[in-house]
């Protein structure tokens, strides 16, 4: 067995959390490849190391001394080293990085040093080998990962060893450091799992997996223990912030299970995502809920049957006004499109007016300030019950779309929270 374990910034924020990480890693001999982020916030008023490094770069760019900022960064890693009694001279790395800084230092290089330092320390703490991400994770000049070359390089470097590698960055063809967008350590972990044909990719964070509803709206929502990759995609499309598509694609392509777990509750089951997710449902068969808000709904009702080309013409009009469509349906009564919240009101009204002029005799109805409540189900038998519960709560359902494996309920945005609570109560009790 081989498990790739990625630990996020919250898992590495202080010495106490580093000790938790070591217990997790040493608790399973399959965890032989570890990917780490930079140290995150210790408390609400604290700073992420990566944020401090970007601030250092801004100082350098404008010729402002950054020594005080650098001292804060250095003190974090020195404190972790000392409190964990790690036998590693991190001062040498800190001094070498600081002495190399100048106005010409790239933002990517400086931002990547948080992960670099964390990986150096973690390798010494675990007794693993350090493998720099520059040694294997390769980009082309446009920032795309060169998968074949990267996979081959990591396979050669890992070769059965226990290693720690930094997340977030890699190398361009000319040797310069290049970083992913924020959250890039998740992508690094996924790529490492795919490269090494891991049995599982473990993503350790500060939450106990994916929850069945937004905990800010529903008190203590149930955790979702299992999902398929298509179900995860549907939740993400509806607004659940889990992992970016770039962090899922490499393991999905190789059919490697993804396990989201909490460093702070390592005995909790977490959420396991794979291709053969067993039934782990409430008594109703509902898996969970997600929401997208606010949204708008555009209906185009024709006097006769909808022409086949009408949908494409409507989409072209919306694209012209830079309005994103995330769902569309064509039926005997015409077209119904759900539009993303990013569109400006003026653009929405201009597009509606243009469509009225284009489709002479058609009714063009625009409804704003709506929300979409997605119910993820592995059976459609409970959709009528959910719809009835939402309506009974006082939130009218303006549009219902069955999109296996689930359904989307369009409600007023102002009533989204009561609709979610009612649906959750109907599904989970």
Can you offer a commentary on this structure?
By secondary structure, the chain is an alpha/beta fold. The chain is built from 13 helices and 16 strands. It has helices at 15-26, 49-61, 67-83, 90-100, 107-126, 147-158, 184-195, 229-238, 245-253, 310-320, 345-358, 383-392, 416-428, and strands at residues 3-7, 31-36, 129-130, 163-166, 169-171, 177-179, 200-205, 226-228, 258-262, 271-274, 286-301, 325-331, 334-339, 363-377, 399-402, 406-412. It has an eight-stranded mixed β-sheet, with helices on both faces. Strands 12-13-11-14-16-15 form a six-stranded antiparallel β-sheet. β9 (258-262) and β10 (271-274) form a beta hairpin. The longest helix has 20 residues, at 107-126. It starts with a strand and ends with a helix. The relative contact order is 0.10.
Give the oligomer, counting copies of the same chain as homo and different chains as hetero.
single chain
Uncertain stretches of 5 or more adjacent residues: none
Q: How many individual β-strands?
A: 16
What percent strand?
15-25%
Helix- and strand-based class? alpha/beta
N/C terminus separation: 39 Å
The topology string of helices and strands comes to EHEHHHHEHEEEHEEHHEEEHEEHEHEEH
Morphology: globular
Strand order of the largest sheet: 3-4-2-1-7-9-10-8
Mean pLDDT: 92
Radius of gyration: 25 Å
Largest sheet: 8 strands, mixed
Number of helices: 13
Helix percent reads 25-40%
SSE topology:
Layout: E1 3-7, H1 15-26, E2 31-36, H2 49-61, H3 67-83, H4 90-100, H5 107-126, E3 129-130, H6 147-158, E4 163-166, E5 169-171, E6 177-179, H7 184-195, E7 200-205, E8 226-228, H8 229-238, H9 245-253, E9 258-262, E10 271-274, E11 286-301, H10 310-320, E12 325-331, E13 334-339, H11 345-358, E14 363-377, H12 383-392, E15 399-402, E16 406-412, H13 416-428
């Amino acid at each position: 067995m081989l498990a790739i374990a990625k630990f996020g910034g919250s898992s590495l924020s202080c010495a106490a959390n580093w000790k938790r990480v070591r217990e997790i890693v040493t608790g399973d001999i399959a965890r032989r490849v570890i990917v780490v982020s930079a140290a995150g916030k210790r408390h609400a008023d604290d700073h992420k190391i990566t944020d401090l490094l970007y601030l250092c770069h801004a100082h350098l760019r404008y010729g402002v001394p950054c020594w005080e900022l650098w001292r804060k960064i250095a003190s974090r890693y020195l404190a972790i080293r000392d409190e964990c009694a790690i036998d590693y001279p991190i001062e040498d790395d800190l001094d070498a990085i600081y002495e190399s800084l100048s106005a010409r230092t790239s933002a990517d290089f400086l931002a990547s040093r948080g992960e670099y330092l964390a990986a150096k320390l973690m390798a010494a703490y675990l007794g693993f080998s350090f493998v720099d991400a520059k040694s294997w994770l390769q980009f082309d000049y446009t920032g795309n990962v060169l998968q074949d070359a990267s996979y081959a390089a990591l396979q050669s470097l890992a070769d059965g060893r226990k290693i720690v590698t930094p997340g977030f960055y890699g190398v361009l063809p000319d040797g310069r450091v290049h970083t992913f967008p924020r959250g890039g350590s998740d992508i690094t972990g996924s790529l490492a799992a795919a490269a090494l044909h891991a049995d599982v990719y473990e993503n350790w964070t500060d939450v106990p997996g994916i929850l069945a509803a937004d905990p800010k709206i529903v008190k203590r929502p149930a955790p979702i223990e299992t999902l398929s990759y298509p179900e995860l995609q549907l939740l993400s499309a509806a607004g659940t912030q889990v992992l970016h598509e770039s962090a899922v694609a490499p393991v999905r392509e190789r059919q490697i299970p993804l396990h989201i777990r909490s460093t702070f509750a390592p005995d909790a089951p977490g959420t396991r995502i794979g291709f053969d997710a067993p039934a782990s449902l409430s008594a109703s068969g509902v898996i969970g809920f997600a929401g997208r808000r606010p949204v708008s709904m555009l209906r185009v009702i024709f006097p006769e049957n909808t022409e086949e080309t009408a949908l494409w013409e409507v989409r072209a009009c919306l694209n012209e006004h830079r309005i994103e469509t995330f769902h569309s349906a064509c039926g005997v009564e015409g077209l119904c499109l759900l539009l993303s919240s990013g569109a400006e009101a003026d653009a929405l009204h201009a597009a509606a007016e243009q469509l009225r002029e284009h489709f002479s005799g058609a009714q063009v109805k625009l409804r704003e300030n709506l929300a979409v409540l997605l119910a993820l189900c592995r059976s459609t038998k409970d959709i009528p019950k959910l719809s009835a519960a939402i309506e009974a709560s006082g939130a009218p359902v303006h549009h219902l779309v069955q999109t296996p494996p689930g359904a989307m309920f369009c409600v007023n945005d102002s009533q989204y929270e009561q609709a979610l609570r009612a649906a959750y109560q109907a599904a989970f009790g």
